[in-house]
């Protein structure tokens, strides 16, 4: 399984457990953690050959670490990319993708409602260097088309979107990007490769926060950029090795262990989330439920075509306003009140006053985030316990 040329014959679950592993002379079963900053050369000539790039091999762990490399090869195999670059966080994955692929004067078209820090990165930091961003509704392909300018270089999106779980047509956006000479970058954090493979649908680059479902147990921050050798292996890798937001070998090892169980965990998240969504739909105190697995979801068919499962994220509107939503949240004893997602532990949050609290009321309304909206990232507890935890508050509103 160390020979990536042979990896294509294996299914996703097999790649998740095996891809990229190279056993050392110790014959270890589990991948070792190479906790070393630098690597020793046999001679001055070998050092020179490594530094010039004539000879491949380890030099310094900012850009060549064997444990990190196994994680990169494994996630590249899962996403179906030629190459992956591991990063210190999901945000640094997005940053190094931008540093590698963009220059001053370029323009980004992004979907509305991408991760909050992504919006701040685009608006406050990339803008300082002459890169502008326009925002469009995720599911409106005509709006994407109209927003593209001659200097547009990237189309950027997340699907399903958080918290309302709208689903973008990845193949349609990829076709549009290529017709217009742009690259499509997809943030695949919410589904992961276990449920959705954007590169297969035509996206050029995938970014992912490994902090969420890939670790899956709320322990470590990290990320990755996955795509072709040309963009990721040259442009993005070049930006990472110089600017330095690299993944630590310890976290790479945690994420390797996370990838090994990713498929079974994602399936369990999906089963729990669908059960909870269907139950919420029947509660008199619930006005509306947003979950791609429900037949009432506007992009249910697209999600069924494009994804292997509907994911662990759902949201719902409680009858009443902010107070009713807060009551449901405050009556929970099990579900954690936190904005994180992708953990075995279920989390609950009030988007209008937390993740989307800095938007103006008008911008929030335009994004469809109402004051009575509650988001749940459904974990792996028994779903009956989760229902009981929400029923306590719902019976009081
Ligand atoms: C969390 C998250 C990020 C950022 O990842 P970090 O690891 O927190 O830096 C980016 N995109 C999405 C969709 C996320 O949920």
Short account of what is shown:
The protein is α/β, with parallel strands linked by helices and 397 residues long. The protein has 14 helices and twelve strands. The structure holds pyridoxal-5'-phosphate.
Describe this structure in words.
With 397 residues, the protein is α/β, with parallel strands linked by helices. It folds into two domains: 3-260, 3-Layer(aba) Sandwich (Aspartate Aminotransferase, domain 2), CATH 3.40.640; 263-394, Aspartate Aminotransferase, domain 1. It is 38% helix and 15% strand. The strands form two sheets. The chain has a seven-stranded mixed beta sheet with strand order 1-7-6-5-4-2-3, sandwiched between helices. Strands 8-9-12-11-10 form a five-stranded mixed beta sheet, covered by helices on one side. Strand 4, helix 7 (170-179) and strand 5 (183-187) form a beta-alpha-beta unit. Helix 1 runs antiparallel to helix 9, helix 3 (66-79) packs parallel to helix 9 and helix 12 crosses helix 14. The longest helix has 20 residues, at 262-281. The chain is globular. The termini are far apart. The relative contact order is 0.12. Bound molecules: pyridoxal-5'-phosphate (PLP). Pyridoxal-5'-phosphate (PLP) binds at residues 89-91, 115, 158, 187, 189-190, 209, 211-212, 221, 223.
């Amino acid at each position: 399984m160390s020979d990536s040329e042979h990896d294509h014959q294996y299914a996703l679950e097999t790649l998740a457990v095996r891809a990229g592993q190279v056993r050392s002379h110790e014959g270890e079963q589990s991948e070792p953690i190479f906790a070393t900053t630098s690597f020793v050369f046999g001679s001055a000539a070998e050092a020179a050959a490594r530094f010039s790039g004539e000879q491949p091999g380890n030099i310094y762990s900012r850009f060549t670490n064997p444990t990190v490399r196994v994680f990169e090869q494994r996630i590249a195999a899962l996403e179906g990319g030629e190459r992956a670059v591991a990063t210190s966080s999901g945000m640094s994955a997005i940053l190094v993708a931008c540093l590698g692929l963009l220059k001053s004067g370029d323009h980004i078209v992004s979907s509305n409602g991408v991760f909050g820090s992504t919006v701040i990165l685009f608006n406050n930091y990339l803008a300082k260097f002459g890169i502008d961003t326009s925002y469009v509704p995720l599911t409106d392909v005509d709006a994407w088309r109209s927003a593209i300018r001659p200097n547009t270089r990237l189309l950027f999106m997340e699907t399903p979107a958080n918290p309302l779980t709208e689903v973008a047509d990845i193949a349609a956006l990829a076709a549009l990007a290529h017709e217009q000479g742009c690259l499509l970058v997809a943030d695949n954090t919410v589904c992961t490769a276990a449920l959705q493979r954007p590169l297969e649908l035509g996206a050029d680059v995938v970014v992912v926060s490994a902090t969420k479902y890939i670790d899956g147990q709320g322990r470590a921050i990290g990320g990755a950029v996955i795509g072709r050798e040309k963009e990721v292996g040259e442009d993005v890798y070049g930006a990472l090795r110089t600017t330095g937001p690299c993944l630590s070998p310890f976290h790479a090892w945690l994420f390797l262990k996370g990838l090994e169980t990713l498929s079974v965990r994602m399936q369990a998240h999906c089963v729990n989330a669908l059960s909870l969504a269907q139950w919420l739909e029947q509660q008199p105190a619930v006005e509306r439920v947003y979950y791609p697995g429900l037949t009432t979801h506007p992009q249910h068919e697209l999600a069924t075509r494009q994804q292997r499962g509907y994911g662990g994220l759902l949201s719902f509107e409680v009858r009443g306003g902010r107070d009713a939503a807060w009551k449901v949240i405050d009556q929970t004893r099990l579900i954690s009140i936190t904005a994180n997602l992708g953990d075995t532990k279920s989390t609950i949050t009030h988007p209008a006053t937390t993740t989307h609290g800095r938007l103006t009321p008008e911008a929030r309304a335009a994004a469809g985030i109402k004051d009575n909206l509650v988001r749940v990232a459904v974990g792996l507890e028994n779903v009956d316990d989760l229902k009981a935890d929400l029923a306590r508050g719902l019976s009081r509103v």
